[in-house]
Amino acid sequence: MCGIVGYVGMQDVTDVLIDGLQHLEYRGYDSAGIAVFEEGEIRVVKSRGRLTDLIQRMEEEGKPSGTCGIGHTRWATHGEPSDVNSHPHGNESISIVHNGIIENYMAVKAFLEEKGYVFESQTDTETIAKLLDYYYTGDPLKAIRSVLAKIHGSYALGIIFRDFPGKIFATRKDSPLIVGVGKGENFIASDVPAILKYTRDYYLLEQDEIAELTADSVTITDVNGDILSKELMTADWDMEAAEKGGYPHFMIKEINEQPTAIVNTISPRIEDGVPHFHLPNLPDDTFGRFKSVQIVACGTAMHAGMIGKYLIERMARLPVNVEIASEFRYRDLLLDKDDLVIVISQSGETADSLAALRAAKEVGAHTLAVVNVVGSSIAREADDVIYTYAGLEISVASTKAYTVQVAVMYLLAIKFALARGRMTEQESAEFCRTLFDISKSMEAMLKDTHECQYYASKFQNAHSLFFIGRGLDYALSLEGSLKLKEISYIHSEAYAAGELKHGTISLISQDVPVIAVATQTRIYEKTISNVKEVRARGAKVLLICKQDAVVDPEVADYILRIPVYDDIFMPLMTIVPLQLFAYYTTILRGCDVDKPRNLAKSVTVE
Ligand code: M6R
Fold first, then answer.
1. Which residue owns the Cα nearest ligand 1 atom 7?
2. Predicted structure pTM score
3. Per-residue H/E/C for 292-347
4. What pairing do the DSSP bridges indicate for beta strands 68-74 and 3-8?
5. Nearest of 483, 396, 105, 101 to residue 261 by alpha carbon
6. Whose CA is nearest to atom 16 of ligand 1?
7. Among 169, 174, 422, 493, whose Cα sits 20 to 30 Å from the Cα of 181?
């Protein structure tokens, strides 16, 4: 995730910016840069790579000297990690740094190109810089407001104008930004750790408020230009807590980031209610040409693929096979150019998934990567790539990366359904609206985690546990089970509910509890029958079902009810309690949540 820091005061600005950016390194980045007022001019230094690369570049080119400037660490979203795509962007009179995603940047770019602007980078940020230049006639606030009226999406912006040395402007929407208040110095930052060394006092900028900072003053105005009097906050976190945004662990922070991650991932792809991917080798009108889809991935990413299979088959009536990459890569592949192979990977570097991608290419299948890390090996080698915009995921247990992979599966399912005449554009628009609505329900759900904490306390001492479900609930059970076992070290298995009786039910006893996921109305009664079977063998049961499900109180020991959506949408809602259950069980057992034993975030060996 990108990081922003800005400083105006008496200290050497370059030192303060680099120091602040170093404290944002944990967020992940692939390039960095600063823009500093030096003798009345804006001087920009930026570099692909780590902050050490930026420092080295400054050693070569001369360290910028001044007392006011802005800095940025970029986590690539639009365009590869490169010098030219690094922030700041702008020209000799305006310089900006940006976090977030501008959804309509293509339209804004076209508008500016018509006016004669030429673009150098592949970023959405450059469109903001050029739009600012277009509107700027000497009044920064007016220009900023004009820009805000024209752009859609999420943004936190730090801006400097050559005409206003010693001043920083900042604004935000759906991407955090704070204004740090010191003595004779002020700051902007995307996150508290960047400024904690200098001050603990800060203002929280709200949506579309604009801050104007000098060394001695901070003025914050609303969209109408009215000056606001805001509450000064005090950060009482230590550096470690600050990096986790005040949460005790990255995992729970990332679980809470899911609603935003979903919106960031889907909204840039939905135009007039229809998903568009703008893939160079897979134009929108060619989605109808495939006779089958093969999804390949590992672990959690594979579980997202399982959801994809159910969605695409149900919505588009297109056959989908899902396979673990380590198996797929050594199989005799019966695929050709009429088959689409989708490789899902958070890191884009998983060795088995990369090998599977290469194997698919070798037999001539069209390959599409769904990847979180821009410029990663899988993203580079696939014929086409759809990036998920989850931001950096630090916790080894994948949560938000999974959810956005699932969100992309929904968009792909719509795309195939439209291409195969199984859905109208009107239905697509309705479907997309529901996805946005779900992100809001998810947000509400995350506000109260007490129930999940309670169930975790009831199951924390189990030695072995089963998750059961059918259809989409089975796919979800696989992920719920993986989450629990990888961090709590409780042995757990996910089973298709109807399959238990073919052998595995002999393991069920009063010491082996069962979590039954039953959100699919069509097969609800079938799953309940399986629940009765395990209950009859003494298992303690937690039933996860829809809010409005009719449940015989005798069926389960505990019932967790989820807000109601059409069956097809339930995975996005149901995943949250499963993640929370794993998280709280792990806390109660005193295990290391973010760094479970024997595991690495990215598995780059076979
Ligand atoms: O980076 P990838 O998505 O390719 O990683 C695949 C798996 O190693 C990963 O999803 C793993 O299962 C999760 N970290 C588990 O939470």
1. 299
2. 0.83
3. EEEEEECHHHHHHHHHHHHHHHHHHCCCEEEEEHHHHCCCCCCCCCCEEEEEEECC
4. antiparallel
5. 101
6. 397
7. 174
pLDDT at 223: 87
Query: What is the per-residue pLDDT across 11-53, written as a single tens digit (0 to 9) for each?
Result: 999 999 999 999 888 777 889 999 999 999 999 999 999 999 9
What is the token pair recorded at 564?
A: 């109601």
Q: Is 2 a catalytic site residue?
A: yes
Q: Residue 163 is encoded by which pair of tokens? A: 């005409």
Q: How many CB atoms lie within 10 A of CB 218?
A: 21
The tokens for 372 are: 């979180």
The sheet with strand 320-324 has its strands ordered as 320-324, 292-297, 339-345, 366-371, 384-387
pLDDT in tens, 350-395: 989 999 999 999 999 999 999 998 888 899 999 999 999 998 888 9
As a whole number of angstroms, the distance between CA 279 and CA 324 comes to 25
Given the CA of residue 483, which atom of ligand 1 is nearest to it? 16
- Measured CA to CA, the distance from residue 170 to residue 161 in angstroms comes to 12
Q: What is the pLDDT of residue 75?
A: 86
At 420, list the tokens.
């195969």
The mean pLDDT of the chain is: 94
Query: What DSSP letter does each residue of 37-99 carry, written as one string?
Result: EETTEEEEEEEES-HHHHHHHHHHH-----SEEEEEEE--SSS-S-TTTSSPEE-SSEEEEEE
- pLDDT at residue 249 above 80? yes
Contact 326, 296 (CB under 8 A): no
Tokens matching residue 246: 């005040």
Cβ neighbours, 10 Å, residue 457:
12
Nearest to 406 by CA among 310, 490, 474, 339: 310
Segment 553-571 shows an average pLDDT of: 96
User: Which residues contact ligand 1 via a Cβ below 6 A?
Assistant: 298-301, 345-347, 350, 353, 396-398, 486, 602-603
Encode pLDDT of 296-324 as tens digits. Answer: 999 999 999 999 999 999 999 999 999 99
Q: What is the DSSP letter of 126?
A: H
For residue 388, which amino acid is it? T
User: Backbone phi, then psi, for 212, in 5-degree steps?
Assistant: -125, 120
Closest residue by Cα to residue 397 from 327, 447, 346, 439 = 346
Cis peptide bond N-terminal to 88, omega within 30: yes
Report which protein residue has its CA nearest ligand 1's atom 10.
300
The radius of gyration of the chain's CA atoms, rounded to the nearest angstrom, is 25
**Average pLDDT estimate for 66-89:** 91
Q: How far is CA 398 from CA 162, 343, 502, in A?
A: 44, 17, 31
Length of the chain: 606
**What pLDDT, on the 0 to 100 scale, is given for residue 26?**
78
The verdict on whether 150 is a catalytic residue reads: no
* Pocket test residue of 254, 347, 377 for ligand 1, highest count of atoms within 8 A of CB: 347
Residues with Cβ within 8 Å of 242's Cβ and at least 6 positions away in sequence, in order, are: 191, 192, 193, 196, 235
458, with CB counted inside 10 A (0-12, 13-18, 19+), is: middle
pLDDT at 70 over 80: yes
